[in-house]
Automatic annotation (TrEMBL):
Disordered: annotated segments: 504-525
Any Pfam family the entry gives: Oxidored_molyb
Oxidoreductase molybdopterin-binding domain residues: 262-411
Signal peptide range: 1-23
Protein name per Swiss-Prot or TrEMBL: Molybdopterin-dependent oxidoreductase
Superkingdom of source: Bacteria
Keywords, alphabetical: Membrane, Signal, Transmembrane, Transmembrane helix
Spans traversing the lipid bilayer: 71-90, 97-114, 120-138, 185-206
Species for this entry: Herbidospora solisilvae
Length: 533
């Protein structure tokens, strides 16, 4: 005998959607209770990020920029909703099939959560509980989909007469049988939606307990002073031209690029940094121990390898940290080691050349940015910053572990996905203003250029096919920051193409050969098309 439901598809789909909503809510609640970042949706999203091919990831970064995570989470919800509606329709054949589909989905979530690099044993629970709650909801709502008037008679008929009789149930499948009690269905759906909202909100609220705002405030209250404070920035670092990137990027405007769907909340009181691998003496430093070391202050500009020519993924800050070289010297790097494989609290990795970190540049385990503890999004409590290297090979946020090793033995997150193992920053320049429209006549053109560790010696600007004209350069505190530039030009009315190019202090001018960001950084001159009216 079959329990095929006669409920219309829309009602079955609605039941599936309600079940999924309850599942997501209950999963979020369980994740909030357990703590950490074990929400099933976030876990599935994280796994999707790690498993998706690099072309897809690059496309997402290029298309959605810093909104890529919001788009991904939104996409996951859409997929869940479509699947859930499908599971509901499947449950018409047999409610058990729908329940099974939900359970399989829960196992996928549990697998995603368990295989996250920072997973704990408990992290499978939210997904499993979510699946159970979803399955239970599906059954309950399907009970409300039974045809009310004739349900009892069919059962009695089937039970009291095991063999098909003059009046087999199928004969009853007329109009009356298709009648569902809509009021009962909608009450069930509303109850499910209520449960979903309450559990989901409670989960989000409980999850908020993990945030480290209070710990950040403690660090802020006792921020150590640098051993040799830098002089204040020269007055001439910033032309203060409207729409030109300010010399110091405020923390809240600083670009953010990482794979973390839920920001790691790392408590500095339990944080530690392990230095191990090819070293004479492995070290483990607590946050307090790190801050007792000589503190270095450095102005340096971070750049993302994914930044397209003219793009926004570059920012400059004054950092406070501890020299990586000093810590590594204390550990004693063994001969033959050429790579520092750093790992973040959420399991992301970067491989940094040893020689780069040890050559005297200001490579830091940084804990403050522009006078305040690192924002959580930028690596609180400790991250690496290395002048002259793209972030993906150097700037590990929430860093907890440095394995001293060899490039021929280890690979890192992005190098496993096709990007170059070593990522020195390429000399680049960008036009910030104007970007599209301006008035004919005298115009201020301005932008930034960078060649970290070398310094910018010259920026030139060209209007259409005219001659290259040298721009005026702002002052800089050193070679590790970007440098503002500006030039006044006369523009006739109509369309114009502005181009710029930088020459670094070694005398090398950036190449005009176009290259995409992958595998080791975009090249080509930045050009903007301007309409003067
Ligand atoms: N833990 C962790 N650290 C990370 C990343 C990441 O995905 N996870 N991304 C890196 C990349 S690609 C860049 S460009 C810089 C960006 O640093 P920001 O977000 O502070 O600007 O962080 C680096 N550090
Ligand atoms: Mo990056």
């Amino acid at each position: 005998m079959t329990s095929r439901s006669t409920a219309p598809s829309w009602a079955a789909a609605l039941a599936g959607l309600t079940a999924a909503a309850v599942a997501v809510g209950v999963g979020q609640l369980a994740a909030g209770v357990i703590g950490g970042d074990s929400s099933p949706v976030v876990a599935v999203g994280g796994a999707a990020v790690d498993l998706s091919p690099s072309w897809l990831k690059n496309w997402a970064i290029a298309t959605f920029g810093e909104n890529d995570k919001t788009v991904l989470i939104g996409g996951i919800f859409v997929v869940i909703a479509l699947l859930a509606a499908g599971f509901g329709v499947l449950a018409r054949i047999r409610v058990g099939y729908g329940r099974l589909a939900l359970l399989v989905f829960g196992v996928v979530g549990a697998w995603a959560a368990a295989t996250r690099p920072d997973a704990g044993m408990l992290d499978v629970l939210p997904s499993l509980l979510a699946a159970w709650a979803g399955a239970a909801t599906l059954s309950r709502i399907f009970r409300r989909l039974e045809p009310v008037e004739v349900a009892e008679p069919i059962r009695e008929t089937a039970e009291s007469h095991p063999a098909p009789l003059e009046q087999p149930p199928v004969m009853l499948a007329g109009d009356r049988l298709r009648t569902i009690d809509r009021r009962s269905l909608f009450t069930g759906v509303a109850t499910g939606a209520g449960v979903a909202v309450v559990t989901g909100a409670a989960g989000v609220w409980l999850g908020g307990r993990n945030d480290v705002a209070a710990e950040r405030a403690q660090v802020a209250a006792a921020l150590p002073k640098p051993a040799k404070p830098l002089p204040p920035l020269p007055a001439g670092v910033d032309f203060k031209i409207p729409n030109l990137a300010p010399f110091v990027t405020p923390n809240h405007d600083f670009y953010r690029v990482d794979t973390a769907l839920a920001l790691p909340n790392v408590d500095p009181n339990t944080w530690s940094l392990k230095i191990h691998g090819m070293v004479e003496r492995p070290i483990e430093l607590s946050f307090a121990e790190l801050l007792k070391r000589p503190i270095v202050e450095a102005d340096l500009t971070l750049t993302c390898v994914s930044n397209p020519v003219g793009g926004p993924y570059v920012g400059n800050a004054r950092w406070l940290g501890v020299a990586m070289a000093g810590v590594l010297r204390e550990a004693g790097i063994k001969a033959g080691a050429d790579m520092l494989l750093s790992t973040s609290a959420d399991g992301w990795t970067a491989g940094t050349p040893v020689e780069v970190v040890m050559d005297g540049r200001d490579a830091l385990f940084a804990f403050a940015m522009n006078g305040e503890p690192l924002p959580v999004a930028h690596g609180f409590p400790v991250r690496q910053v290395v002048p002259g290297l793209y972030g993906y090979v150097s700037a590990t946020k929430w860093v907890v572990d440095v394995n001293v090793t060899r490039f021929d033995q280890e690979t890192a997150y992005w190098t496993d996905r096709g990007w170059d193992a070593k990522g020195p920053i390429k000399t680049q320049s960008r036009i910030d203003t104007p970007r599209n429209k301006t008035k004919p006549g005298r115009n201020v053109i301005a932008g930034v250029a960078w060649a970290q560790t070398k310094g910018i010696a010259k920026v030139e600007v060209k209007v259409d096919d005219g001659p290259w004209q040298e721009a005026r350069l702002a002052e800089v505190p050193g070679p590790d920051t970007w440098r503002q530039w500006t030039i006044d030009v006369d523009l006739t009315s109509g369309l114009h193409t502005l181009s710029c190019r930088a020459t670094d202090a070694t005398g090398e001018t950036q190449t005009n050969r176009g290259a995409p960001p992958e595998p080791n950084g975009a090249t080509g001159y930045h050009r903007v098309l301007i309409e003067t009216t």
